[in-house]
Design goal:
Helix 2 runs antiparallel to helix 3, helix 3 packs across helix 8 and helix 4 packs parallel to helix 8. The protein has one domain. It is an all-alpha fold. It is built from 10 helices and no strands. It starts with a helix and ends with a helix.
């Protein structure tokens, strides 16, 4: 445990900054860092407290990142609105279930799914040449609303129940299932995440799952980190973003598989 209160708050502000910066670049939020860190530093917390506190910080990360991406005009607003609304029921259900959901089999299966997804993203990313969709503009883009809505419900649920943010699912889906250009996918995912996490946070707040003494410093760092992340993402090539996404998905998959305890 960190004893010095000043060092304590500075540490978590820096953590929030770095987590949000990375999360905004790949459109996933900072939950990949927040959740394992909270579990390590605060073993006395219940899973609901870990998830609720992480989700609060991810919400601030996503809102700040969304504002930055909107200024860059990279968000497909029509898709963001439709898919955000689709996350509502999933986010509420996930937040309510986070207190008693302990299905190790589900966690293991989901981890395996994400592991396969990371390999698929990596394989597709390292093919020769750029995806033809990378050159599409907002006016040229078409997509399946039914696929997007179905995925968004699932993303809202996963986001609230694990506190990780749903961009790790949304971004690959937007890119490979709906043909979004990579930069547009990460930006749109960030806007969807801003809405879905807000719904999840409200539910966790009602259930008293959020530890504000930790959520506030990490969120302050996340607000600034998201702005920096959006600027960095603007300068990165699509392949670089997808490589980071593949690594992040792989890390999440391994964490879920190990956490399930099924492998011993």
């Amino acid at each position: 445990m960190i004893d010095n209160i000043v060092v304590f708050y500075i540490f978590f502000t820096i953590v929030g900054f770095l987590a949000a910066m990375i999360g905004t670049i790949i459109g996933a939020g900072g939950g990949l860092v927040f959740v394992p860190l909270f579990m390590y530093w605060f073993p006395e917390w219940s899973p609901s407290m870990v998830v609720g506190t992480s989700l609060f910080s991810v919400m601030c990360n996503a809102i700040s990142g969304s504002i930055a991406y909107l200024k860059q005009k990279k968000v497909y607003i029509n898709a963001a609105i439709i898919f955000s609304l689709a996350t509502f029921p999933g986010a509420i259900l996930g937040a309510q279930m986070s207190g008693w959901f302990s299905g190790k089999g589900f966690m293991f299966a989901f981890g395996c799914f994400m592991l396969c997804a990371s390999v698929l993203i990596g394989f597709k990313n390292f093919r020769k040449g750029e995806r033809k969709e990378e050159s599409l503009t907002l006016e040229q883009l078409s997509y399946s609303k039914s696929i997007g809505i179905s995925i968004s419900f699932f993303v809202g649920f996963i986001s609230s129940i694990f506190g990780i943010g749903g961009g790790l699912i949304h971004v690959p889906a937007l890119i490979y299932l709906m043909g979004f250009p990579t930069h547009m996918a990460t930006a749109t995912s960030q806007s969807i995440l801003a809405v879905s996490t807000t719904v999840g946070v409200i539910t966790h707040l009602i259930e008293s799952h959020i530890i504000f003494s930790i959520a506030i410093p990490t969120s302050i760092g996340a607000i600034f980190g998201a702005q920096v992340g959006a600027r960095i993402a603007k300068r990165l090539k699509a392949k670089a973003i997808l490589a980071l996404m593949s690594i992040a998905v792989f890390a999440l998959a391994v964490r879920l598989i190990l956490k399930s305890g099924i492998l011993g």
